[in-house]
Amino acid sequence: MQPPKVLIADSISQRGIDELSRDKALDVSVQTNLSVSQVLEIIPEFSAIVVRSQTKVTADILKAGTSLRVVGRAGVGVDNVDVEAATRRGVVVLNAPGGNTISTAEHAFSLLLCAARKIPQADASVRGKNWDRKNLEGVELYNKTLGIIGMGRIGSDLSRRAIAFGMRVIACDPYLSATRARSLQVELVEELDDLLATSDFISLHTPLTPETRHILNAARLQKTKNGVRIVNCARGGLIDETALANALQNGHVAVAALDVFEIEPLPGDSPLRSAPNLILTPHLGASTAEAQESVGIEIAQSIRAALLEGTIRNAVNMPNLDAKTLAIIGPHLRFGEKLGRFLSQIAPKRVDTLNINYSGKVNEVDTTAITRSIMKGFLQMAGGADVNEVNAPAFAESLGLKVTESRLSALGDYTDLLELSAFAEGKTVSVGGAFFGATPRIVSINSRPVEARPHGVVLVLENTDRPGMVGRIGNLLGDHGVNIATMSLSRNQAGGTALTVLNLDTAPDEALLAEIRASEDIHSAQVIEL
Question: Which of left, alpha, beta for 185 (phi over 0: left; psi -120 to 50: alpha)?
Fold first, then answer.
């Protein structure tokens, strides 16, 4: 029997190659700098492909890879892998989540120093046979304020280095707990505008999501201090590059240092190329010998485990489970993720504790993977697509989110019941879900009994319990072309507060929501998208 074949399509460390080739259990082929057509031609014979950021694993490549079982990304981000297409085709996508934290934090700090002391400009000046000390005057980091947007692993590591240099560090991260902020010795601000107005230096360390795209746009750049210095080693797209170029031209931003860009490689006509006082590096955050060796070995070990043992670890698109266990708890994984996503949208952003209570027969299996799926759903608003079942616990820890589990073995009203509770700002919000046979249903919201389908658009209303409310809500939705699929009603007492849960065919727009909320009988209206 021939050993599984592994294609290394981008350069990884030699120790990573050696780990894959060890004991000749795998047939390893190193073929880098291939064109798309070349990859399409040879991919049918391979069981796994290893890439970094150069090779794009598209839906076409996945379709052509009839023997493909594993895609390994030697790094954290999987932007160059069509994960959805891989999942549909049953291909496991693995990454190396722990290898480049130190490297990227150090690169960000290096750019911080370069932005303060004009080191690249000074080097270019001396090489040009000049000795222009007056125009190369810099500033000290000591006693300056560094604003960090996003306090995950890399942002936290950067804060430690900045504090060691005597900087005051303030942070804006709606998901970072006050307890975690105190342990990091950083000051937590509620509003991004407060950080922008206060910071001498700004460094971005947030994932790229629809909410964070162009988080520094023209309007926000104008809210920064005159002479601010900005560093981005996180994701291209967090900064509006045209707006940044203009702010550099007019001098409002004194210096910027970028390692990532909206389009990579940076286009020749990019306005950044002609902007003054700008330091550019070609996505070098993870480009250290140590980081590359670490991610190479890490991805090699994960691929060997997947192909030779059937064990999945560091997976982006599935939990770390063997096939037999996955078949048993698969429905709970998918349902748990949706319940986590639901809870994250009704809870305050800065949650201190997430509790997961398992009741009934589900306690007969190892619930670790279910917990991770719930955490993935709950944290995706904070971490974007980078959060998966593997790194969710570490991401929760970086935010200071405490996750607890509790169990009730006795059967209650349901054979299996998942109850999720989030504690924040002195109050608790919760959601419960159960299976009706093989069909999942949301059965409680904030301890109020309901019955709703856990998919699509869900509108949750708290309203005064009075005659005609259901009709009024239905008419409002109908007037705006929004159809109700199902409805569930619950109340604490006659004439008290009622909970109305509606599954909708389409999401209501802001104008409709404003009209709903304008009614004195509507206490709250939340749209949940699953």
Answer: left
